[in-house]
């Protein structure tokens, strides 16, 4: 759960900083966070079964 909170917090910081960063920096960072969240979701779903 702490990883999910950290990912959402980091995403919020990146979205807030997106106005100051260039698009080639923001897009890979957002993609990395999205992949992290997807991996977390898959791992949590497998744990329930």
Please summarize what this structure is.
It comes from Streptomyces nondiastaticus. The chain is an all-alpha fold and about 50 residues long. The chain is built from 2 helices and no strands.
Low-confidence stretches: none
Provide mean pLDDT, rounded.
Answer: 85
Series of H and E elements? HH
Total number of β-strand segments?
Answer: 0
Helix content: over 70%
Report how far the terminal alpha carbons are from each other.
Answer: 18 Å
User: Percent of residues in beta strands?
Assistant: under 5%
Number of helices: 2
Oligomeric assembly:
single chain
> C-alpha Rg, in Å?
13 Å
Q: Name the overall outline.
A: elongated
Transmembrane segments: 27-43
Keywords: Membrane, Transmembrane, Transmembrane helix
Protein name: Small hydrophobic membrane protein
Can you describe this structure?
With 49 residues, the protein is mainly alpha-helical. Helices cover 86% and strands 0% of the residues. The mean pLDDT is 85. It is built from two helices and no strands. The two termini are 18 Å apart. Keywords: Membrane, Transmembrane, Transmembrane helix. This is Small hydrophobic membrane protein. It comes from Streptomyces nondiastaticus.
């Amino acid at each position: 759960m702490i990883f999910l909170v950290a990912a959402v917090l980091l995403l919020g910081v990146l979205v807030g900083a997106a106005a100051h960063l260039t698009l080639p920096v923001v897009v890979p960072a957002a993609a990395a966070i999205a992949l992290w969240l997807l991996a977390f979701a898959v791992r949590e779903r497998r744990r329930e079964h």
